[in-house]
Design brief:
Length: about 475
């Protein structure tokens, strides 16, 4: 009797495991340009009329987990300037590479529109900014997403964090500083092999924490400072420069914070930017403006506390839907332009591009929600004080490829929750935005969670970092 009972229990367990394993359909493939055969990066892959989706990596590859309840829905693969690919989720073939054909807007259709429309790039952007209150979310919502935070020099990865996050936003109209919250739900990877010897960061830390405003790096000696104290300084700098809260609340969250004081795209947007209409493109059968961003007569200042973040000029591209002026995509760089910023950027970072931002938005229930964010910035980590007076000892500096670090943060949002009851329940729980805190790995959680697929180059560097981290821990 007992034997039969255990056989029955074992059968049920196996059935349950099989059901769990197949409760989602995995879609994976590569997307390429039909004309050039080159991979298409940042193409959108999503289930129509849902918030389930991802983007392709630098190799044009993607992987997407789709719950079985949506297998009879339509999968859409789209990229700006190309004809979309559509098929049922159930009929998607993982073995056949996807090729997208170039799509050009019909100029005749554009000319024959009856309404009076803005004709210059500046006027189109001003119209889009005016329409933000209509196109952006007006009710509280939650977004589930995936974060990949990586830091590297020119040779190798030095730091990698992968997390599942939840973002709460009360609405577009409310200030982000007091109405936007972030929680780190789970951590998948956390490796940190950076060299901790930045006296400049330590100096800034002491100025902030010990109120030593007149302190200079040249007055400090590395051999007299405990490594544990330097680690605290680096952690403090990580949070203020690369913390998610800072990214969402700062000027770089360009459109969400357009109503903030001295916003990048605020009332004086044309004092800092100029916009030129380049062409009309197509995205998933909808026309959109492609607009070039260039500098104006004023420098841009991000006003980051404790950091000289002034003296920039902007360049990039803005993509705006033709029918409702909703902003689809922003490609934005801040380039050192003032004499002081050019000198600082060259000396400390060996680059003139200090901030690189890509933001894409996805329409859901007639509102535009963040879909993908890419943020890249150089960072002070492996930098010490360089003696300039006769007789001072100049310790051997690392070579250029090892010395200059930069950080990349990628966020993919995979789910939007609008149900007021679910939003309120989530708000009652503790929220912790610290992406740098190490947490235990939950294999079951990550089994069916949608993530960003690494490029082949990143995959090799991550594998190398993982091996070296294991040896380091041993």
């Amino acid at each position: 009797m007992k034997v039969n009972y255990f056989k029955h229990l074992l059968t049920l367990s196996i059935c349950f495991l099989c059901f769990s394993a197949f409760s989602q359909k995995e879609l994976k493939n590569k997307i390429s340009d039909f004309g050039t055969l080159m991979p298409i990066e940042s193409a959108s892959i999503y289930v129509q009329n849902t918030t389930i989706g991802t983007v392709s990596n630098a190799d044009g590859k993607f992987v997407l987990q789709v719950p079985n309840q949506f297998v009879n829905d339509t999968l859409v693969i789209s990229s700006i300037g190309f004809k979309s690919f559509k098929t049922l989720v159930s009929e998607f073939d993982n073995t056949q590479e996807i090729y997208l054909e170039e799509d050009v807007a019909s100029l005749d259709e554009i000319v024959l529109v009856a309404e009076t429309r803005p004709k210059t790039g500046n006027d189109i952007v001003l119209k889009a900014l005016e329409r933000l209150s209509v196109n952006m979310p007006e009710l509280p919502y939650l977004q589930k997403g995936f974060l990949r935070h990586k830091e590297r020099n020119r040779i190798e990865f030095k730091w990698l964090i992968e997390s599942a996050i939840t973002v709460y936003d009360s609405s577009y109209a409310s200030p982000a500083a007091s109405n936007l919250k972030i929680n780190v739900d789970q951590v998948r990877k956390s490796y940190d092999l950076r060299d901790v010897d930045s006296l400049l960061t330590y100096t800034a830390y002491l100025k902030e924490k010990a109120n030593k405003a007149n302190l200079h790096a040249r007055n400090l000696r590395r051999d007299t400072i405990k490594t544990s104290t330097l680690v605290k300084a680096i952690k403090w700098n990580d949070t203020r420069v690369n913390g998610l809260q800072n990214l969402f609340e700062s000027k770089l969250n360009v459109f969400r914070n357009v109503n903030s004081n001295r916003a990048l795209f605020g009332d004086d947007v044309l004092d800092k930017h100029q916009f030129r209409l380049d062409t009309i493109l197509v995205d998933n059968d909808r026309k959109l403006y492609k607009i070039e961003i260039s500098e104006s007569h004023q420098f841009i200042n991000l006003e980051t506390k404790g950091i000289y973040n002034d003296g920039y000029q902007a360049k990039g591209w803005l993509y705006i839907y033709y029918d409702n002026y909703a902003i689809k995509k922003l490609e934005y760089e801040l380039v050192a332009a003032s004499k002081a910023q050019k000198s600082r950027s060259k000396t400390l970072f060996d680059t003139q591009i200090n901030h690189k931002l890509i933001m894409t938005f996805r329409e859901y229930q007639e509102k535009m929600y963040p879909n993908y964010i890419y943020y890249e910035t150089p960072k002070l980590v492996n930098v010490g004080y360089k003696p300039t007076k006769p007789g001072e000892v100049n310790e051997a500096e690392p070579n250029t490829d090892e010395r200059f670090y930069y950080t990349v943060q990628e966020l993919l949002f995979t789910e939007i929750i609008l149900d007021p009851e679910q939003v309120q329940i989530a708000l009652q729980k503790p929220w912790d935005p610290d992406i740098f805190a190490i947490k235990p790995y939950n294999k079951d959680f990550w089994r069916n969670y949608n993530t960003l697929l690494e490029s082949e180059e990143d995959e090799k560097l991550i594998q190398d970092l993982t091996k070296r981290s294991s040896l380091f821990k041993d």
